[in-house]
Amino acid sequence: MSRKPIPRFDDNYTEDSARQRRAFLEAETGVSLTHTGHYSLPPESVRNNTENFIGVVQMPVGVAGPVLIHGEDAQGWFYVPMATTEGTLVASYSRGMRMLSESGGVKTTVIDDNMQRAPMFEFEDARAAKRFVQWMQATLPAITAAAESTTRHGKLLNIQHWQIARMVYTRFNFSTGDAAGQNMTGKAAHAASQWILAHSPEPVIHFSLSGAIETDKKHSHMNLMHSRGKRVVAECVVKRDVLAQRARTTPEIIFKQRQRSYLGAMLAGSAYNGPHSANGIAALFIATGQDEANVVESHTGFSFMDITPEGDLYYSCTLPSVICATKGGGTGLSTQAECLTMLGCNGEGKARKLAEIVGATVLAGDLSLISAIMSDEWVSSHDAYGRNRS
Protein backbone atom coordinates (compact mmCIF):
# COMPACT_ATOMS: atom_id res chain seq x y z
CA MET A 1 0.00 0.00 0.00
CA SER A 2 1.51 3.33 -1.05
CA ARG A 3 1.58 6.42 1.13
CA LYS A 4 -1.27 8.85 0.44
CA PRO A 5 -0.49 12.28 1.89
CA ILE A 6 -3.16 14.41 3.50
CA PRO A 7 -4.36 17.06 0.99
CA ARG A 8 -2.82 20.50 1.34
CA PHE A 9 -3.70 23.69 -0.52
CA ASP A 10 -2.41 27.20 -1.12
CA ASP A 11 -4.75 28.26 1.70
CA ASN A 12 -5.28 25.42 4.17
CA TYR A 13 -7.73 27.35 6.32
CA THR A 14 -10.88 27.62 4.21
CA GLU A 15 -14.20 25.79 4.30
CA ASP A 16 -13.34 24.14 1.00
CA SER A 17 -9.91 22.86 2.10
CA ALA A 18 -11.41 21.41 5.30
CA ARG A 19 -14.23 19.79 3.32
CA GLN A 20 -11.80 18.21 0.83
CA ARG A 21 -9.66 16.80 3.66
CA ARG A 22 -12.76 15.30 5.30
CA ALA A 23 -13.77 13.74 1.98
CA PHE A 24 -10.26 12.31 1.58
CA LEU A 25 -10.33 10.79 5.08
CA GLU A 26 -13.82 9.39 4.64
CA ALA A 27 -12.69 7.67 1.43
CA GLU A 28 -9.50 6.34 3.02
CA THR A 29 -10.94 5.21 6.38
CA GLY A 30 -14.61 4.57 5.67
CA VAL A 31 -15.61 6.73 8.65
CA SER A 32 -18.25 9.45 8.34
CA LEU A 33 -17.06 12.83 9.64
CA THR A 34 -20.51 14.45 9.68
CA HIS A 35 -20.32 15.67 13.27
CA THR A 36 -16.67 16.68 13.02
CA GLY A 37 -17.57 18.90 10.08
CA HIS A 38 -20.22 20.88 11.97
CA TYR A 39 -18.78 23.95 13.68
CA SER A 40 -19.41 27.66 14.10
CA LEU A 41 -15.87 29.02 14.19
CA PRO A 42 -14.30 30.43 11.00
CA PRO A 43 -11.61 28.07 9.69
CA GLU A 44 -9.18 30.96 9.31
CA SER A 45 -9.35 31.57 13.07
CA VAL A 46 -7.41 28.34 13.79
CA ARG A 47 -4.49 29.25 11.51
CA ASN A 48 -2.03 29.45 14.43
CA ASN A 49 -3.61 26.65 16.48
CA THR A 50 -3.63 23.52 14.32
CA GLU A 51 -2.61 22.09 10.97
CA ASN A 52 -4.56 19.93 8.48
CA PHE A 53 -7.81 21.36 9.87
CA ILE A 54 -10.89 19.16 9.28
CA GLY A 55 -13.33 20.34 11.95
CA VAL A 56 -13.86 20.14 15.69
CA VAL A 57 -14.33 17.65 18.50
CA GLN A 58 -17.40 18.72 20.44
CA MET A 59 -16.68 18.60 24.17
CA PRO A 60 -19.55 18.97 26.63
CA VAL A 61 -19.18 22.09 28.78
CA GLY A 62 -20.90 22.35 32.16
CA VAL A 63 -20.84 25.24 34.59
CA ALA A 64 -19.90 24.84 38.25
CA GLY A 65 -20.59 27.33 40.99
CA PRO A 66 -21.02 30.06 41.70
CA VAL A 67 -18.02 30.33 43.98
CA LEU A 68 -17.13 33.35 46.09
CA ILE A 69 -13.45 34.28 45.73
CA HIS A 70 -11.54 36.86 47.73
CA GLY A 71 -8.40 37.12 45.63
CA GLU A 72 -5.84 39.76 44.88
CA ASP A 73 -7.22 39.83 41.32
CA ALA A 74 -10.24 37.51 41.32
CA GLN A 75 -12.88 39.12 43.51
CA GLY A 76 -16.56 38.25 43.71
CA TRP A 77 -18.80 35.44 42.47
CA PHE A 78 -17.68 33.26 39.57
CA TYR A 79 -19.45 30.71 37.37
CA VAL A 80 -16.75 28.28 36.27
CA PRO A 81 -16.96 26.58 32.84
CA MET A 82 -15.69 22.99 32.83
CA ALA A 83 -15.25 20.91 29.67
CA THR A 84 -15.52 17.25 30.62
CA THR A 85 -17.05 13.91 29.70
CA GLU A 86 -16.89 12.63 33.29
CA GLY A 87 -20.31 12.42 34.90
CA THR A 88 -20.54 13.81 38.46
CA LEU A 89 -17.52 16.07 38.01
CA VAL A 90 -19.35 19.37 37.55
CA ALA A 91 -21.88 18.48 40.26
CA SER A 92 -19.09 17.62 42.69
CA TYR A 93 -17.20 20.85 42.05
CA SER A 94 -20.43 22.82 42.41
CA ARG A 95 -21.02 21.23 45.81
CA GLY A 96 -17.50 22.09 46.91
CA MET A 97 -17.92 25.66 45.69
CA ARG A 98 -21.15 25.97 47.65
CA MET A 99 -19.50 24.74 50.85
CA LEU A 100 -16.60 27.14 50.40
CA SER A 101 -18.90 30.05 49.63
CA GLU A 102 -21.25 29.37 52.55
CA SER A 103 -18.16 29.35 54.78
CA GLY A 104 -17.27 32.87 53.67
CA GLY A 105 -15.46 32.23 50.39
CA VAL A 106 -12.00 31.27 49.17
CA LYS A 107 -8.96 33.47 49.70
CA THR A 108 -6.53 33.17 46.77
CA THR A 109 -3.00 34.50 46.46
CA VAL A 110 -0.41 34.39 43.67
CA ILE A 111 3.00 34.40 45.34
CA ASP A 112 5.34 33.80 42.38
CA ASP A 113 5.20 34.07 38.60
CA ASN A 114 7.92 32.73 36.26
CA MET A 115 8.36 30.99 32.96
CA GLN A 116 11.64 29.36 31.98
CA ARG A 117 13.91 28.15 29.29
CA ALA A 118 16.99 26.28 30.48
CA PRO A 119 20.06 26.49 28.21
CA MET A 120 23.02 24.21 28.94
CA PHE A 121 26.65 25.19 28.30
CA GLU A 122 29.59 22.76 28.36
CA PHE A 123 33.27 23.67 28.72
CA GLU A 124 36.69 22.07 28.65
CA ASP A 125 36.76 21.44 32.38
CA ALA A 126 35.08 22.40 35.65
CA ARG A 127 37.29 25.44 36.24
CA ALA A 128 36.37 26.90 32.86
CA ALA A 129 32.72 26.32 33.72
CA LYS A 130 33.20 28.09 37.05
CA ARG A 131 34.82 31.09 35.33
CA PHE A 132 31.93 31.18 32.87
CA VAL A 133 29.39 31.41 35.70
CA GLN A 134 31.29 34.35 37.22
CA TRP A 135 31.42 36.08 33.84
CA MET A 136 27.72 35.41 33.17
CA GLN A 137 26.75 37.00 36.49
CA ALA A 138 28.95 40.03 35.78
CA THR A 139 27.46 40.57 32.32
CA LEU A 140 23.81 39.97 33.27
CA PRO A 141 22.63 43.44 32.04
CA ALA A 142 23.92 42.74 28.52
CA ILE A 143 22.42 39.24 28.51
CA THR A 144 19.11 40.72 29.70
CA ALA A 145 19.14 43.27 26.90
CA ALA A 146 19.71 40.56 24.30
CA ALA A 147 16.86 38.45 25.69
CA GLU A 148 14.37 41.29 25.94
CA SER A 149 15.13 42.53 22.42
CA THR A 150 12.84 39.76 21.12
CA THR A 151 9.68 40.56 23.11
CA ARG A 152 7.50 43.48 24.19
CA HIS A 153 6.05 41.67 27.18
CA GLY A 154 8.74 39.31 28.49
CA LYS A 155 11.23 40.44 31.14
CA LEU A 156 14.26 38.45 32.25
CA LEU A 157 14.03 38.33 36.03
CA ASN A 158 17.15 36.31 36.84
CA ILE A 159 19.29 33.37 35.75
CA GLN A 160 19.67 30.41 38.09
CA HIS A 161 22.58 28.04 37.54
CA TRP A 162 23.83 24.65 38.65
CA GLN A 163 27.25 23.31 37.71
CA ILE A 164 27.75 19.58 37.26
CA ALA A 165 31.18 18.38 36.14
CA ARG A 166 32.10 20.71 33.25
CA MET A 167 28.47 21.57 32.38
CA VAL A 168 26.53 24.64 33.50
CA TYR A 169 22.76 24.12 33.62
CA THR A 170 20.81 27.36 33.71
CA ARG A 171 17.21 28.46 34.17
CA PHE A 172 16.37 31.79 32.56
CA ASN A 173 13.38 33.05 34.56
CA PHE A 174 11.03 35.43 32.75
CA SER A 175 7.82 37.27 33.49
CA THR A 176 5.51 36.88 30.49
CA GLY A 177 2.49 39.10 31.09
CA ASP A 178 -0.80 37.43 30.14
CA ALA A 179 0.76 34.76 27.89
CA ALA A 180 1.76 31.32 29.14
CA GLY A 181 5.11 32.20 27.62
CA GLN A 182 6.81 28.99 26.51
CA ASN A 183 7.38 30.25 22.97
CA MET A 184 8.18 33.76 24.17
CA THR A 185 10.84 32.55 26.59
CA GLY A 186 12.26 30.11 24.07
CA LYS A 187 12.83 32.91 21.57
CA ALA A 188 14.24 35.27 24.21
CA ALA A 189 16.56 32.65 25.71
CA HIS A 190 17.77 31.74 22.23
CA ALA A 191 18.74 35.36 21.52
CA ALA A 192 20.46 35.65 24.90
CA SER A 193 22.33 32.39 24.37
CA GLN A 194 23.53 33.47 20.94
CA TRP A 195 24.92 36.65 22.53
CA ILE A 196 26.61 34.54 25.22
CA LEU A 197 28.14 32.18 22.65
CA ALA A 198 29.50 35.14 20.71
CA HIS A 199 30.99 36.92 23.73
CA SER A 200 31.93 34.23 26.28
CA PRO A 201 35.63 34.38 27.20
CA GLU A 202 35.49 30.62 27.84
CA PRO A 203 35.12 28.45 24.73
CA VAL A 204 31.80 26.58 24.75
CA ILE A 205 32.37 23.06 23.44
CA HIS A 206 28.70 22.08 23.51
CA PHE A 207 25.45 24.04 23.77
CA SER A 208 21.78 23.18 23.93
CA LEU A 209 18.88 25.63 24.21
CA SER A 210 17.31 23.19 26.65
CA GLY A 211 19.27 21.29 29.24
CA ALA A 212 15.95 19.72 30.31
CA ILE A 213 15.78 21.14 33.82
CA GLU A 214 12.92 23.46 32.94
CA THR A 215 11.01 20.17 32.58
CA ASP A 216 8.63 21.57 29.99
CA LYS A 217 5.30 19.70 30.20
CA LYS A 218 6.73 17.16 32.63
CA HIS A 219 6.32 16.91 36.38
CA SER A 220 9.47 17.50 38.42
CA HIS A 221 10.59 18.24 41.93
CA MET A 222 12.40 21.28 40.48
CA ASN A 223 9.09 22.93 39.67
CA LEU A 224 7.71 22.24 43.14
CA MET A 225 10.58 24.26 44.57
CA HIS A 226 11.10 26.85 41.79
CA SER A 227 7.78 27.71 40.22
CA ARG A 228 7.18 27.34 36.50
CA GLY A 229 4.08 29.42 35.88
CA LYS A 230 2.16 30.93 38.77
CA ARG A 231 2.45 29.74 42.35
CA VAL A 232 -1.10 29.92 43.72
CA VAL A 233 -2.45 29.36 47.22
CA ALA A 234 -6.18 28.85 47.78
CA GLU A 235 -7.45 28.63 51.36
CA CYS A 236 -10.68 28.64 53.31
CA VAL A 237 -11.94 28.05 56.83
CA VAL A 238 -14.76 25.59 56.17
CA LYS A 239 -17.42 25.91 58.85
CA ARG A 240 -18.38 22.90 60.92
CA ASP A 241 -22.12 23.38 60.36
CA VAL A 242 -21.59 23.66 56.59
CA LEU A 243 -19.76 20.34 56.52
CA ALA A 244 -22.51 18.73 58.60
CA GLN A 245 -25.33 20.06 56.41
CA ARG A 246 -23.77 19.81 52.94
CA ALA A 247 -21.39 16.86 53.31
CA ARG A 248 -22.62 14.87 56.32
CA THR A 249 -19.17 14.83 57.88
CA THR A 250 -17.03 16.74 60.39
CA PRO A 251 -13.70 18.59 60.41
CA GLU A 252 -12.20 15.88 62.63
CA ILE A 253 -13.15 13.06 60.26
CA ILE A 254 -11.74 14.85 57.23
CA PHE A 255 -8.56 15.85 59.06
CA LYS A 256 -8.02 12.28 60.28
CA GLN A 257 -8.35 10.92 56.76
CA ARG A 258 -6.02 13.59 55.42
CA GLN A 259 -3.29 12.43 57.82
CA ARG A 260 -3.64 8.89 56.52
CA SER A 261 -4.01 9.69 52.83
CA TYR A 262 -0.93 11.90 53.07
CA LEU A 263 1.10 8.81 53.98
CA GLY A 264 -0.45 6.93 51.08
CA ALA A 265 0.51 9.72 48.71
CA MET A 266 4.09 9.61 50.04
CA LEU A 267 4.17 5.84 49.61
CA ALA A 268 3.03 6.17 46.00
CA GLY A 269 5.37 9.07 45.22
CA SER A 270 2.37 11.15 44.18
CA ALA A 271 2.92 14.58 42.64
CA TYR A 272 -0.04 15.97 44.62
CA ASN A 273 -1.13 14.92 48.10
CA GLY A 274 -4.73 16.13 47.79
CA PRO A 275 -7.63 14.20 46.23
CA HIS A 276 -7.62 15.19 42.54
CA SER A 277 -6.31 18.53 41.31
CA ALA A 278 -5.93 17.42 37.68
CA ASN A 279 -9.66 16.90 37.15
CA GLY A 280 -10.70 20.50 37.68
CA ILE A 281 -7.61 21.97 36.04
CA ALA A 282 -8.03 19.88 32.88
CA ALA A 283 -11.73 20.72 32.57
CA LEU A 284 -11.13 24.43 33.09
CA PHE A 285 -8.08 24.46 30.79
CA ILE A 286 -9.96 22.85 27.90
CA ALA A 287 -12.91 25.22 28.32
CA THR A 288 -10.69 28.33 28.29
CA GLY A 289 -8.25 27.43 25.51
CA GLN A 290 -5.17 26.59 27.57
CA ASP A 291 -2.46 24.21 26.37
CA GLU A 292 -3.89 21.00 27.81
CA ALA A 293 -0.43 19.41 28.18
CA ASN A 294 0.34 22.00 30.86
CA VAL A 295 -1.98 20.09 33.20
CA VAL A 296 1.04 17.85 33.86
CA GLU A 297 2.91 20.67 35.61
CA SER A 298 -0.08 22.65 36.84
CA HIS A 299 -1.72 19.85 38.85
CA THR A 300 1.24 19.22 41.17
CA GLY A 301 1.30 20.67 44.65
CA PHE A 302 0.45 20.44 48.30
CA SER A 303 -2.75 20.07 50.30
CA PHE A 304 -2.74 21.22 53.92
CA MET A 305 -5.38 21.09 56.70
CA ASP A 306 -5.74 22.12 60.30
CA ILE A 307 -8.47 22.32 62.92
CA THR A 308 -9.07 25.89 64.07
CA PRO A 309 -9.50 26.82 67.76
CA GLU A 310 -13.21 27.26 67.01
CA GLY A 311 -13.46 23.69 65.70
CA ASP A 312 -13.72 24.50 62.00
CA LEU A 313 -11.57 23.10 59.18
CA TYR A 314 -8.79 25.19 57.68
CA TYR A 315 -8.19 23.77 54.19
CA SER A 316 -5.68 24.98 51.62
CA CYS A 317 -4.01 23.87 48.42
CA THR A 318 -0.77 25.25 47.03
CA LEU A 319 -0.20 24.82 43.30
CA PRO A 320 3.41 25.83 42.54
CA SER A 321 3.28 25.76 38.74
CA VAL A 322 -0.07 26.82 37.28
CA ILE A 323 0.61 27.63 33.62
CA CYS A 324 -2.29 29.60 32.19
CA ALA A 325 -2.91 32.47 29.81
CA THR A 326 -5.59 34.95 28.85
CA LYS A 327 -3.93 35.97 25.58
CA GLY A 328 -2.38 33.86 22.84
CA GLY A 329 -2.63 30.16 22.12
CA GLY A 330 -6.18 28.88 22.05
CA THR A 331 -7.63 31.66 24.19
CA GLY A 332 -8.82 33.63 21.17
CA LEU A 333 -10.89 30.82 19.64
CA SER A 334 -14.62 31.41 19.61
CA THR A 335 -15.97 29.22 22.41
CA GLN A 336 -12.84 29.48 24.52
CA ALA A 337 -13.01 33.27 24.41
CA GLU A 338 -16.64 33.09 25.51
CA CYS A 339 -15.69 30.96 28.52
CA LEU A 340 -12.88 33.35 29.45
CA THR A 341 -15.26 36.28 29.15
CA MET A 342 -17.72 34.47 31.43
CA LEU A 343 -14.97 34.53 34.05
CA GLY A 344 -13.99 38.13 33.32
CA CYS A 345 -10.59 36.85 32.21
CA ASN A 346 -10.48 37.62 28.50
CA GLY A 347 -7.61 39.89 27.46
CA GLU A 348 -4.78 41.80 29.07
CA GLY A 349 -4.12 41.96 32.80
CA LYS A 350 -6.15 38.83 33.58
CA ALA A 351 -3.72 35.89 33.77
CA ARG A 352 -3.21 36.08 37.53
CA LYS A 353 -6.96 36.35 38.00
CA LEU A 354 -7.42 33.15 36.00
CA ALA A 355 -4.72 31.41 38.06
CA GLU A 356 -6.58 32.35 41.25
CA ILE A 357 -9.81 30.89 39.83
CA VAL A 358 -7.88 27.70 39.04
CA GLY A 359 -6.73 27.49 42.66
CA ALA A 360 -10.24 28.05 44.04
CA THR A 361 -11.63 25.43 41.67
CA VAL A 362 -9.09 22.82 42.79
CA LEU A 363 -9.85 23.49 46.45
CA ALA A 364 -13.59 23.08 45.82
CA GLY A 365 -13.11 19.77 44.04
CA ASP A 366 -10.80 18.44 46.72
CA LEU A 367 -13.21 19.38 49.51
CA SER A 368 -16.15 17.77 47.75
CA LEU A 369 -14.33 14.53 46.93
CA ILE A 370 -12.83 13.94 50.35
CA SER A 371 -16.24 14.68 51.89
CA ALA A 372 -17.88 12.14 49.58
CA ILE A 373 -15.27 9.52 50.47
CA MET A 374 -15.72 10.04 54.21
CA SER A 375 -19.55 10.02 54.05
CA ASP A 376 -19.45 6.90 51.82
CA GLU A 377 -21.18 8.69 48.94
CA TRP A 378 -18.39 8.45 46.38
CA VAL A 379 -19.64 5.37 44.51
CA SER A 380 -23.34 6.13 44.92
CA SER A 381 -22.95 9.64 43.52
CA HIS A 382 -21.25 8.30 40.40
CA ASP A 383 -24.01 5.75 39.99
CA ALA A 384 -26.67 8.45 40.36
CA TYR A 385 -25.09 10.67 37.72
CA GLY A 386 -24.50 7.91 35.22
CA ARG A 387 -20.74 7.40 35.17
CA ASN A 388 -20.96 3.71 36.08
CA ARG A 389 -23.98 2.85 33.95
CA SER A 390 -23.43 0.14 31.40
From TrEMBL:
The keyword Iron does not apply. Keywords: NADP, Oxidoreductase. It comes from the Bacteria. Gene3D superfamilies: 3-hydroxy-3-methylglutaryl-coenzyme A Reductase, Chain A, domain 2 (3.90.770.10), Hydroxymethylglutaryl-CoA reductase, class I/II, NAD/NADP-binding domain (3.30.70.420). InterPro entries: HMG_CoA_Rdtase (IPR002202), HMG_CoA_Rdtase_cat_sf (IPR023074), HMG_CoA_Rdtase_eu_arc (IPR004554), HMG_CoA_Rdtase_NAD(P)-bd_sf (IPR009023), HMG_CoA_Rdtase_sub-bd_dom_sf (IPR009029). The keyword Chaperone does not apply. Its EC number is 1.1.1.34. It is an enzyme of class 1 (oxidoreductase). Belongs to the HMG-CoA reductase family. This is hydroxymethylglutaryl-CoA reductase (NADPH). It comes from Limnobacter litoralis.
